[in-house]
Amino acid sequence: MRKLHYLLFALIMGLSVSMTSCSDDDDDATPSDGTNTSIAELKALVTGDAAVLISEDKIFDGIVTSNNAESSNFYKSIYIQDETGAIKISCDKPADKGADAAYDSYEIGQKVQVKMKDLYVGKANGLFYVGIKSDDAKYIVGLIADADVATKVVKVDGGVAVEAATATIAALTDDMIGTLVKFEKVQVLREDSKKAIIDGIKLVDETKNTIKVYVYKYSPLKTVATPQGSGSIAGVLYKSDEGYSLSLRLESEINMTAATFDDGTTAPAAPTGTPGINAGTYTGSAATDLFISEYLEGGSNNKYLELFNGTGADIDLSAYSIKLESNENTAWGDAVALAGILPNGATFVIANSGAALTLNDGVTVDVTASKATYFNGNDRVGLFKGETLIDKIGVIADADSNGKTDNFAADVTLVRKATVTDPVTTWNTGEWTVNGKEDVANLGAHTMN
After folding, report:
1. What is the pLDDT of residues 20-47, one digit of tens each?
2. CB within 10 Å: which end of the chain, N or C, has fewer?
3. d(Cα 402, Cα 159) in Å, to the nearest integer?
4. Which fold has domain 277-448?
5. Alpha-carbon gap, residue 352 to 199, rounded angstroms
6. Which of 281, 443, 273 is nearest to 351 (CA)?
7. Which among 167, 127, 142 is positioned nearest to 53, based on CA atoms?
8. Per-residue pLDDT tens over the stretch 259-270
9. Is domain 165-258 in CATH 3.30.160, yes or no?
């Protein structure tokens, strides 16, 4: 029988760790019958780049540390931790898109018994995955079918919630990937303090070490205000090509209200004038409504969207929103609300919070609606008035052999022709002038006649 001695886990990782009981059982509760291995022993089986098939009846106990049902930040996965480390279980969604996913039923602190026979274990970016054989070379393992999740990850009694182990950014190691960690005396990097939390803010400690914070675009955590003070924050550690990152789990695990310290950067410069509001001109008849006047799809985060008010009256932007249709999806995503009063004859420029192009003198941008610029060259952009689509950029082009749609507007700047006076819901390339990548010459000053 194997006992959950989490103090041993702390010694292995060089971290402090404690538990909170989720049942009447204490920390020495006897593991369920049949347990014969650990996460560390499974990891040791992976000696190369390929995933390893487990053909024997290897079974381990662990505690669930992710909470996709609450945070939606652990898509198609269950993170499990035992006294020796952590591992990710890769799960598929149900065939019925209206049904609840099995992996969403696992709660933080839930004790589980994982039956590894006929499953694969592999490693990518330091994280160990459990799943089925993958037919796609891009993924180390495939997703366990939704109907099979409960038979492979069996809920058992005696759960003891893992409390985040205190860590420092400078001392992170790959052995800690997938585990629940907590950083103290950190704050948002000052130059990121005006970004939305979903835009990939970085945390910095008192010795100038940084780590990126990850929030999935469909997670309700994306609405959490970016912390403006210093303090502690916890989450699941993972690693990407950019280095270590922290995947947030619960809003309650963000406690950053103390005074900030000097992180070596300067505060973002305050914009001149009203952010996003810029000049425009028109002659002749007024437009029937607000419309999209410019779209810039540049490299990295250099993405901008411009709206023009040529209606003859000021417009309250709170009645409007931007939505995106991504890749081959045919449903609009979440609405990005707009705000403020857009004067008649003026443009409203929305910029990605990470955009860094040099604009014409006097042009201001608004980044509070930054998510409206989360587009690539094959994503459609829709302008909505209330729940009604009134203007649109793009169309789903023919898909290639991999199901990916064509990049109809990648690496270009699209400017609405001066002859266009009305928004339209049908994509018409004849209404747009196509300029080069990252051409900002017209941004912030639209002309309509």
Report:
1. 444 444 343 344 568 999 999 999 999 9
2. N
3. 43
4. Immunoglobulin-like (2.60.40)
5. 9
6. 443
7. 142
8. 989 887 765 544
9. no
